[in-house]
Amino acid sequence: MAKKPKFYVVWRGRQSGVYDSWDDCRQQVEGFDGALYKSFDSKAVAQKAFSEKPHLHIGAGTTKGAAAAASLPAFAGKPIEDSMVVDAAWNTASGDMEYQGIYLATKQYIFRMGPYADGTNNIGEFLAIVHALALLHQKKSNIPVYSDSRTAISWVKKKKANTKLDPTPHNAVLFELIDRAERWLATHAYANPVLKWETDYWGENPADFGRK
């Protein structure tokens, strides 16, 4: 008996959408921090689910990949306007990475760095958070810093970028920046909360590069 086909909704991944094969879906979510996706038995149901918020479907029934989906808070409230928001972009074709930060209340761009060769998105998110913390420390400001990367936030808390990326002649500058960021975290105290940007409640990270 032929196996019934599955359809896969990717709400958060490298490229969101509805996919008709697990291989196509996996390319969008595998290794992507905070990926949100689920399988459905029909294309019509999948397309309807894609038009809705993921928290209405994640955890509802059995799904391959549900365990990997980010857990969502029962109530996310609203983001603090007096804050900085950071994000990174990684080009899958070239391997180039860049990152930036904005002041949320005015959407003013505060910094934009890169592109850096042979990087990763998580490294960019980590560097962006530390860059924001260092700038705010100079200004003696304790406002929060938002990032949509749980991985990068955990690295900052541990004061260590736990990357598996291998150093190469192409990314030597990037590893110098990582070392500098880790040394800054080890030698500076900061009171700024580093918070998760809840995309599924607040919309796209306003520091996003807009290349999805």
TrEMBL record:
- Enzyme Commission number: 3.1.26.4
* Record-level GO cellular component terms: cytoplasm
Decide whether keyword Nuclease is in the record: yes
> Quick one: which residues bind Mg(2+) 1?
D87, D208
Q: What does this protein do?
A: Endonuclease that specifically degrades the RNA of RNA-DNA hybrids.
Where in this chain does the record put each RNase H type-1 domain?
78-212
Region forming the signal peptide: none
Q: Does the keyword Magnesium apply?
A: yes
Identify this protein by name: Ribonuclease H
Q: What class of enzyme is it?
A: hydrolase
